[in-house]
Every structure is written in C-alpha cells, then in structure tokens.
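Reopening: structure tokens for the iron/sulfur cluster complex, inputs below.
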Amino acid sequence: VERSFEIDIDRLKEVVFSRDVRVVGLQLPEGLKRRGPEIAGILERECGVRVLISGNPCFGACDVDTRLLGRVDLLFHLGHSGRDTHRIVFVETPARVEVERVLEKALSLLESERIGLFTTVQHVHSLRDARDFLEGRGKKCVIGKGDGRIKYPGQVLGCNYSAIRGLDCEELLYLGGGSFHPVGASLATYKRVVAADPFTLKVEEINPELVVRRRYAQLSRARDAENWGIAVSTKPGQFREELALEIKRKIEKWGRKAFLAHMDLISPDSLLNLGGEAWVSTACPRIALDDSSSFQVPVITPPELDVLIEGKPWKMDEIWG
Ligand code: SF4
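Re-run output (same inputs, fresh job):
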C-alpha cells in the first residue's frame, strides 16, 4: 500500500533547484516514513543538498516539525494538504488505486438516491470519477466545498467536516481507508454513512454508537474530578490557547481546580506525571476520541466539557478555518 501513494520526486527536485537552499528537511506521515531515506538519497545525489528527515510522529498539516524547520532552509511536508509558505512546501501524495470495483460493491449498501461524497486528501482526485460512476448507476451525487482549512471539494479532516455539513442529501459515502473519518462524519452530521475502501474493497455501514457509548463512559469517569488539567498542544495547527483559557474559567466557575499544560505531543505519561484527575484536550480531537484507551486518566474534548457542566447534547470537536 505504501507504494500506492504517488510521491512526485521531480516536483521536489524542481523546488530545490529553483531556490537557493543547502539544507532540506523532510517530514512524512507514519505510513510513508519508510520512503524518507530513499527520497533523501535522491535529493542529496541529484540536487547536492543535505537532507534531514524528521523522525517525530506526523499526523496532519497541522503538525509541522517547527524544530526541524529551524535547522533547514526549506521543509517538505509530505502527505497532507496545506498552504505553502516560503520555507514550507506541502507535497500531496495521491493514492493510485482504481475506485470502480469498490463503488460497485458500495451500491448495494446505499439506500437513497441523493448521496454526499467525501474523502481525505489522498483520494480527492478520485471523487469526480466516483460521482460519474454513481450517476451512471442512477444516483445523484453532491460534493460540498468546506471552509478555509479545506483545500478541495469533498475533502474532510479528522477535525473538520465543513465540506459535508448541511449537504443536501440523505446519506453520505466515504471513499478511503480507516474508520476515524467516516465515524467522525456520522457523529458530525447525524447522517447515515457508508464507507468504501478502494484498497481492501471493504464496504460497510458506519455505526457510531460504540464510540458514543465509550465517550459517555469517559464522561462519567471524569464527572467527579476535582483537579483538572487542560492540555494545549504547541503544534502550530492545533494550538488553541484562547479556548484553553476559556475552559479554565468554566471549570473554576464550576467549583473545581484547573491548570493549563503546554506540550508538543500529548502522551499518556505526560498527563499522568502532571497529576490532573481528568483532562480536557484542546489539541487534535483524535487524541480524546481515538486514543482514549491508552490514557490512564479520562481525557475529554472541549464540547464534552459542556455536556458535563451544562448538560448540552454531545457534539464533535472540530477546528474551523
Ligand atoms: S488536528 Fe485535524 S488535521 Fe491535525 S492531525 Fe488532528 S484531525 Fe488531522
């Protein structure tokens, strides 16, 4: 699968040749990290630059390795879509996989006539083909635009479902792998979601109930905590300090204690060592929603705190742009 994601090395070389750079940084998502040494070798041999690969985990365009950026003239951030700056160049890595076979299978699960299509950046280039295929089978497809953090129509992030919110359709079809995005879409829109993975050819209707049950279990563990930690990530696209301060005020007004903790990576050990009985994470929503089982203390999202304190209905934590 790793080789099914296209990396446009010629573009990297062109960018290097067009600028006066001597040291280049390379940041890759976990699934593509193993290709780092090969790309570094090509750039070093053919462009005469020194390449430093980031070994830190990289989860999204929000997660630029700022330490490495301080040591290089130019940083290539691969695998995510973002806005280039003069020293950071985002290089998307589109999946090269045909989608018709999995769409054919997905047809049997789709119940309504009007379908909203969405995916991650790796498959956005296939959405037009998907729409043509489904419309050729009698469906009507809609693809939404999204807010300022969304680069392509139909694209979602784990923390941003603006491209499908309010779409005029009864159900949604996700093209891509993994369960987080389709579950997130279901929780963000309350619509029926079918997921179709073009690599494994697995198609399924998403059932978000288990996730919601787990979230309410976390909330009941957190409910009586007297001493709350509020985690603020220093990753550029996840830094929500204003929100963290507002949360601190809310918790104190609720009659409990609260402290802010800044950290790059929010790990089980860092939370445990700081000693909060329960935590609100203002960083990537996946930390609370996807990784909660690895933390020994309950970790909840900012909107979940409103469920606890104000009895508001549960809602997805999203970062708007
Ligand atoms: S904050 Fe959003 S874009 Fe960044 S890793 Fe999390 S879900 Fe992805």
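The mean pLDDT is 96. The CA atoms of residues 107 and 134 lie 8 Å apart. Marking as resolved unless the reporter disagrees.
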